[in-house]
Amino acid sequence: SDHMENICGYLMKYTNLVTGWQYRFFVLNNDAGLLEYFVNEQSRPLKPRGTLQLAGAVISPSDEDSHTFTVNAASGEQYKLRAADAKERQHWVSRLQICTQHHTEAIGKNNPPLKSRSFSLASQGSANSPGVQRRPSQNAVSFFNVGHHRLPTGKRVPIMQPDHLVDVREMMSQAEGQQRDLIRSIECLPVSGHLTSLDQDLLMLKATSMATMNCLNDCFHILQLQHASQQKGSLPAGTTISWLEPKISLANHFKNGAAQNFPAEINKPASVREEQSIAEPCQLTREPEEINPDEEVEDICDDKEDDLGAVEEQRSVILHLLSQLKLGMDLTRVVLPTFILEKRSLLEMYADFMSHPDLFIAITNGTTPEERMIHFVEYYLTSFHEGRKGAIAKKPYNPIIGETFHCSWRMPKSHVAADAGTNSSAHSSSEQVTLPKDMEGQAELDYYTVKFVAEQVSHHPPVSGFYAECVERKMCVNAHVWTKSKFLGMSIGVTMVGEGVLHLLEHGEEYTFSLPCAYARSILTVPWVELGGKVNINCAKTGYSASVNFHTKPFYGGKLHRVTGEVKQNMTNTVVCRVQGEWNSVLEFTYSNGETKYVDLTKLSVTRKRVRPLEKQGPFESRRLWQHVTESLRDGDIDKATEHKRALEERQRNEERLRAETETPWCTKYFLKDGDGWVYHKPLWKTVSAAQTQQTDSN
């Protein structure tokens, strides 16, 4: 009760670019659930200059500093405010959040259930919105015809027979079709007028209908599991049935069952039906495919993500999504709207970190362990800039299990030698390593080839494995990454759990490394990416290590994208190189001999990757798998892109459900489980070792 008192006081309000910040007198009216403001305290008896409804609003402290916060109303209107200090901001934020929660919950308590209430969107010309005029159920036009059946007390529920499950599935499909029609009808309403798509009652109707269908789908899934267990035998005592499906938005959920049972199947584009009809991956050949680099052609795609596009238009959708999330919530199983996606898979994003293959190859040119560690740090820090496509933070496609991506790069040997200062001593040591006969021909070419393969090896948790090698320089890198994302208010944080290992076979060295965290900041305005956290690079054989700190922007001042690091010899604890700068701009390397080198990442040459044409790619290679989603995003057709994306995700859920019911393990194609990690099935270190053993035996 004492937390719900009305508070008032001066806050600074951001008006526009011209007038900037202005002092205004704000009043929190808890009884009405309103945030009002006046020009000053003396004008309080007059009409407020502005008013925000707090029911369904999102109150968020800003990342910019410790004084600023935003109030985002369900209507889409936003107040950007600034308090005098951090303590005052916390006071306002906490009171606003309490008031918002109280009035949001009151909406659900005060509204009658759907059984006695429905609306006709056909009567849009009425002067009264559903929030004003409440009528009994209209039989003529009703979105749902809901019946409630009560079981006789004391009677046991009979075991559901297979034909009953078919009936239930058919009813579920019909209900989902009606629910989609409802959502579509609401979203087609104008944004202004007596009855709008942002009407509080309609927003509540959308949310409750989605939650209801989610619950029904979960219950139906449990019935399927029970039926499957009855066919195999009864469940052991104490067995608990847990959720196997993510709690998803019904707007992104087409069906629960086979595609042929869906009533609207005939109305889907052929490409969607094709996506849904691809056979179960484990039924396809899981034998690793050897990709011939000669079949790959230089990539001509250049999908920069510098345009907000639909993100700006769909701001109310983002607000609605944020209102459903809680601080610290795991977003791994949350299906995000299609319009925030960039036009590539996460597997391809990992490949784009290799866009400077000349620096990667040049690591082996170091004549001493110290030089090689420094070369690796230089390559590592230059890889993140090109991995991001543009300044706008968008999300790559979540790879489906079994998805793969292949590519390669070609780099003229003269170009690498000129840049890295290759000398004879580096080549003399390489003669000690024997290549297999089928790889010897590559050493005679006038260019180096770096080959890359990535595979989504797990869905829950989402784990990707990727591997790259340059046979001619006898080097390869193997890594596995588990992406864990969390909601942080006005930011989304992504932790990259996993480890990578670089193998320099001609020197017998292994470099272990980790990846920094990534943050999508300012997700309600112009989202941008920030890296943060400390990563370590170690070489156990040589005793050299590097620590790199990606600094997030502090509340006061400071630069964006700042990075610092140092390379040292562990035995003597001597720092041999220091680095500072921005990971997407200019890096400064200072060496122990006093020399300094500057690397301008914006001027570094980018080598285009080589990929096979779509017609030569397998059905589970990233670009072919997501081609219809990508094409729709390029055309700006968000609805069509969502439909294709939904079909892929639904197929994956059905396959996962089938594997769970039949207790069939997933079969990976290119990567093998090794302890807590994943290793490429045919790494270069094994191939070279086998070749050396064979040569020794023949001698």
Automatic annotation (TrEMBL):
UniProtKB keywords: Acetylation, Endosome, Golgi apparatus, Lipid transport, Lipid-binding, Membrane, Phosphoprotein, Transport
Alphabetical list of CDD domains matching this protein: PH_ORP10_ORP11
A GO MF term: sterol binding
Region Disordered, residue ranges: 104-136, 638-658
GO biological process, one term: lipid transport
Residues in PH domain copies: 4-101
SUPFAM superfamilies: Oxysterol-binding protein-like, PH domain-like
Catalytic function, reaction form: a 1,2-diacyl-sn-glycero-3-phospho-(1D-myo-inositol 4-phosphate)(out) + a 1,2-diacyl-sn-glycero-3-phospho-L-serine(in) = a 1,2-diacyl-sn-glycero-3-phospho-(1D-myo-inositol 4-phosphate)(in) + a 1,2-diacyl-sn-glycero-3-phospho-L-serine(out)
Localization (cell): Golgi apparatus, trans-Golgi network membrane; Late endosome membrane
Pfam families xrefs: Oxysterol_BP, PH
Parts forming coiled coils: none
Database matches in InterPro entries: OSBP_sf, Oxysterol-bd, Oxysterol-bd_CS, PH-like_dom_sf, PH_domain
GO CC term, one of those recorded: cytosol
Polar residues: bias regions: 117-136
Keyword Transmembrane helix listed: no
UniProt function note: Plays a role in regulating ADIPOQ and FABP4 levels in differentiating adipocytes and is also involved in regulation of adipocyte triglyceride storage. Weakly binds 25-hydroxycholesterol. Interacts with OSBPL9 to function as lipid transfer proteins.
PANTHER family, per the entry: OXYSTEROL-BINDING PROTEIN-RELATED (PTHR10972), OXYSTEROL-BINDING PROTEIN-RELATED PROTEIN 11 (PTHR10972:SF46)
Subunit structure: Heterodimer with OSBPL9.
Family of the protein in this entry: Belongs to the OSBP family.
Protein's name according to its UniProt entry: Oxysterol-binding protein
Gene: Osbpl11
